[in-house]
Every structure is written in structure tokens, then in C-alpha cells.
Amino acid sequence: MYPSRPARLLLLGSILPLGSFLSITCASEPHKPPEPGLSLVERGRQIFFNEKFAGNGRTCGTCHREEDNFTITPEFIATLPPDDALFVAEFVPALKKNFERPALMRKFGLILENLDGFDDLEKRFVMRGVPHVLGMRTSIDSPGGPRTGWSGDGSPGDGSLRSFAVGAVIQHFTKTLDRVPDVDFRLPTDAELDALEAFMLSLGRQKELVLPLPLRGIVPKRGQEIFRDNALGKCNRCHVNAGANANFGGGDLGNANFNTGVEDLVDQPADLAGAVNPPDDGLGTPGDGTFNTPSLVEAADTGPFFHNNSIETIEGVVAFYNGAAFNNSPAGKALAANDPNGVGIRLEATQVVAVAAFLRVINALENIRDSVAKIESGLRGKEGQGRLLATRALKETRDAIDVLTGGGLHPEAVGYLRKAAELIDEACSGRRRDENSKKAIKILAKARADLVEEK
To answer: CA angle, corner 207, sides to 249 and 138, nearest 5?
Structure first.
């Protein structure tokens, strides 16, 4: 989601001694030391949501909203006040031109990125959605190094997750378009980068699913079969165990890049708006047209989808792989070349719905797992921390409700989830916190049992 590695390395070389890049410690303002006993993850959380790096007022959490699954959607943007830091291009004179495209941000949740460097801000930019940062421990490793951002090269320099934060500050936190360190922003210290990395790696699930799951629902169960069938759905080739890692052609590729033809989709919403929206060439400078493979476990409640937010629903995403844009793409042709009948992906409408139902169910299962984990952590913590974690658990539970009802799935599980949400809401208010939390955990277990058989 940030300028590509070579371009940003050149940029950093012009504003920093290149050899000092990987050990940035200079700062233009004093820093408070970590609070006594504060864990590295919690320190990272505080930096992620509160630290402005002497810039334009934005934080990492300005775009990666915890209340919106660590991404940001047009629906959420519409709830923000006019002076929110997301809108600095609308009220900071130095950023009014070529820093963002406010109309595309508000309508489609698209953020301006200078992937190919900052030397021609008027013409050299792309518009991308905000990728969530959940489950990164399982989703960014590859034989070629870490993969971050939509095109897999979202970090300057060494490509690490620590450098991911450096790229974000340079691109998004600057006071002016000159982007001069210690004038327009300050760069994170080593200690801050360590904490940010620890926090980001702590988000979401910490291990891969192991498919197949013993699903109870007839349609999601069939969807899982199609997903894993390398002669039919073929999804598991690039999303092993519904994650972000590929096994295409018999080899473990880790987190990989593919050209799936998304840029060739007709009637993309941002294009229909009539705004200037240059084509996105993906990885590298110039780009090779490839984009990074995201995890699908967290997909159903983190739309809109693809790097350009071009599709709104998970059903639409699955249907995309039936279309001409994908099947005429390098990735589609590669699938067809390995198919005895020369077919890329060809699913009937009922099969598209089944695969989407499977993705909805595994997302809901992750919501339930995370909700229970947060409630249990809250029970072990102090009352204030318990209420905070209960609030986060309530969000996960409501997400599970939305994901299942959006596909007309598992009404009994939805009933349990709604009851659990009521109890968690009570716990958030401090009323019989421990009692309501423990009851909610038991009811969440019943919801899970309606989705999947317990081993």
C-alpha cells in the first residue's frame, strides 16, 4: 500500500544516509519511555492508535480502524466528523492537492498511494483500499521475503513489517508534500518499530486453519469441497487452508503475487465516478501487474474487496473468478494450462454461493474464537481492562451475526450470537461483568457448535 521498495529506497537515500535506514533512531521531539510493566504489544497498541509522529495529525489507526476490522469502509468514513485526521487533505492547505482524492476516499474508501515515487505527484499515483492487518503472523512470509500491502512490496528498504510502518509515516503522515524528515514528520525510533511490529503480529489468529473442517451446514460444507477441489474451484491452490499462502504447481510458494486481471474489470466503481483514477500496475517500479494474495479467513467482514475496492460482497468476489477478466489473465491461463479440459474456473451460480457460504462460516468461526479469547482475557484482567476487552468482543460477535445473516446462514447460531451479544453488552456496562461474561462464553460455544462439529 506504499511506494515500492526501489522507489522508496531512492527517496530515503535522498533524505537519509542510506546506511542508517535500518537503524533509524533520530527524532525531533522527546519521547516518553514505556510505562513501567507495559508489555511490548500494549506499547505498540498505544503507538498505533495515538502516536502522530510530529506529522499532520494522523496515526496508524486513522486508516486501520479497530472498530472497522482494522480497515476502513465508506460506511464508516461517513460517520466521522469533518475534522477527523483522515480528511487532512480537505482542511490543511499544504495537502489540498495531490495528497488524497477526497471524493474517491469518501465514496469508495480509496487512499492515494505514490507507489512509483514522489517525483510526479500529479500523474504518478494509484488509489487503493486499506488492507486490514489481521492474521499477519500467518500471511506475510515468502521465500523472497516479507509481503506487505496490496502489491506485496509495501515496505521500503528491507521489506520487513517494521519498515512497513516507516513507509506509512512517509506516505501518509507528512505535513507537506516535500516529505522532509524532522520537518514534515519524524521517523519512528527502533524501539517504536519493535513495539509496532509486536502489536501488528498480535492481531487476529496466530495459526493457520487446517482444512477440511467438520462443517454442519449443507451449503457451506459443499462450498468447502468446491474450494478444496483442484479440478473445480481450484481456490486452495493459491489460498491453502483458506489462508494467504500458495501451493501452485506442487511447490510451497508462501505468500505470493499473481496477476488475476482485477485491473481489467469493466465498470469499476471509481472509474464510473468520473474521477482521475490511473491504472494500478502492482508490484515493482514499473509494476509487473501482480498483486499480493490475501488471507480469506478474515475476508467476509473486511470488504470491499481487491486492491481497488471494486467488489462489495464476498459472493461477488467468488463470481469474479468465473469471469473473463480472471480467465483471460495470466493466473487464469495458468490454471487452464494445468486443467485436462483447458478450463480456468467455471462454477455454476449455486456453486459460487456455496463457496461464499463457506467463506462466511470460517469468518464467523474466527469472530467467535476471537470474541471468546477477548472475554477470557478480560476476566483475568482488571475491571477497566475487562470492560475494554468486552467492547472488542462485542464487535466481533456482531460481525459474526452480520456475516451469517448476510448469506442467510445458520439462523440458530445467529440466535445464540444475538443472546451472547446482549450478555457481552451487559458486561461492557459493568453489570455483573464476570457472570455475564461467563454466560456469554457458554452461549458462544453453542453458536460455534451449530457451525462446526466439535472434535
So the answer is: 55
Bridge partners for 185 per DSSP: 181
Question: What does the DSSP 8-state code read for residue 310?
Answer: -
DSSP state of 182: T
Question: How far, in Å, CA of 3 to CA of 113, rounded?
Answer: 7
This prediction's pTM:
0.92
- Name the fold adopted by 5-202: Cytochrome Bc1 Complex; Chain D, domain 2 (1.10.760)
- Closest by CA position to 163, among listed 135, 183, 143, 140: 140
* Among 10-14, 36-40, 55-59, 417-421, the least confident range: 10-14
Q: Structural domain boundaries of the chain?
A: 5-202
Cell of 432: 455483573
3-state SS class at 392:
helix
Torsion angle, alpha carbons of 427, 428, 431, 437, to 10: 10
From first CA to last CA, the distance across the chain in angstroms is 40
pLDDT tens digits, one per residue of 333-352: 999 999 999 999 999 999 99
What letter represents residue 183's amino acid?
V
